[in-house]
Amino acid sequence: MCSHDNHLYAVAVHGGSGHYSRNQFSQQERQAYRTGLERALRAAEAVLKTGGAALDAVQSAVAALEDDALFNAGCGAVLNAGGIAELDAAIMDGTTLKAGAVAGMKTTRNPVRAARAVMEHSPHVFLHGSDADAFASRQGLTQVDNAYFVTVARELQLAEAQARGETFSISKFGTVGAVARDRLGNIAAATSTGGMTNKLPGRVSDSAVIGAGVYASRHGCAVAGSGHGEFFIRLAVGKDISGRIEYGHQTLADAANHVIHTSLASLGGEGGVIAIDARGTIVIAMNTAGMFRGVLKESGEPETGIYADEALSRSPASL
Ligand code: ASP
User: Fold this and answer.
1) Among this protein's residues, is 281 annotated catalytic?
2) CA of 170 to the centre of ligand 1 (A)
């Protein structure tokens, strides 16, 4: 999937990749996911259409997905082996290469806002654990009890994973992410996640690791990933895709497809990415059966899709 829109804004979001079978979701559930993606696209659009920055757009899109209990980020995040939601997020500006990241947060309602605060209001890039929550609180970000993030569906998922003796539940990665290009040609990326079901407490996701599940450089591209994070970290997926463009002079499509279908696949890793370059080209690549994803371009309407072999389209409820 590929398109060019010079001097126009564009945004792509994802709600996680996974091995989704055709009969896994009811029509109603599919629509609910698509509505959530559309809401995130509209949140980004509200920023971009008034001339706002790509950085603000990706933060708004990811915050909207964090607030939607269907997705594995913020409210509705998956649970660690102790039944606790431990949240990771990151944000990066492709123009300045400034970045902020947080890991292991337990009380900050919107971790992506905390990542942005780390980027803008600390001398650091990466904060973790209770100190990250304390920092976010000092920045005036809303704090909640950890129970706020926990849903019945995630408790059931954890119980099932533990009954099967799974360390991770790899059939579905519901991490969220966004990439955007604003009218000035700036690009940015943001991600947020609860990580993987039944993960060891303290495990950090690729979604919080700059260069792995998230990266942005105007010389290359902005990337937000979803998949088995250990592989994304080992391969520095985001930086590799961007670097292939910057130093290897590959197209965005060639770079993203190579890293997902060759590098990731050859290690046995699974997942996908959404990516955008400074011209507004959007590429989505995955080696899973699906990825909740959506795209919105200037003067266009939100288009979403779930399965790998399906073209993005307007969802029935948005027509
Ligand atoms: N990448 C995430 C992780 O490994 C999982 C996901 O994409 O949902 O924590």
Assistant:
1) no
2) 9
Q: Report how far residue 169's alpha carbon sits from residue 199's, in angstroms, rounded to the nearest whole number.
A: 9
Predicted confidence (pLDDT) per residue in 258-317, tens digit: 999 999 999 999 999 999 999 999 999 999 999 999 999 999 999 999 999 999 999 988
pTM of the model: 0.96
In the chain, how many domains are there? 1
Whose alpha carbon is nearest atom 7 of ligand 1? 226
Q: Kindly name the residue from 95, 107, 108, 175 that is annotated as catalytic.
A: 175
**Which atom of ligand 1 is least distant from the CA of 205?**
9
Closest Cα to atom 9, ligand 1: which residue?
195
**Is residue 245 a part of any domain in this protein?**
yes
Q: Measured from the CA of 227, which atom of ligand 1 is nearest?
A: 7
Query: What order do you get walking across the sheet with 10-18 strand by strand?
Result: 126-128, 99-105, 87-93, 187-193, 176-181, 10-18, 290-297, 303-307
- The domain in which residue 183 lies consists of 2-74+88-97+173-318
Judge whether 115 lies within some domain. Answer: no
68-106 residue pLDDT tens: 999 999 999 999 999 999 999 999 999 999 999 999 999
Query: What are the phi and psi torsion angles at 132 (to 5°)?
Result: -70, -45
Mean pLDDT of 147-173: 86
Q: How far is CA 194 from the centre of its chain?
A: 11
Residue 126 lies in a domain: no
Pocket around ligand 1 at a 6 A CB cut-off: 16, 72, 173-175, 193, 195-196, 205-207, 213, 226-229
Q: How far apart are CA 204 and CA 199, in angstroms?
A: 9
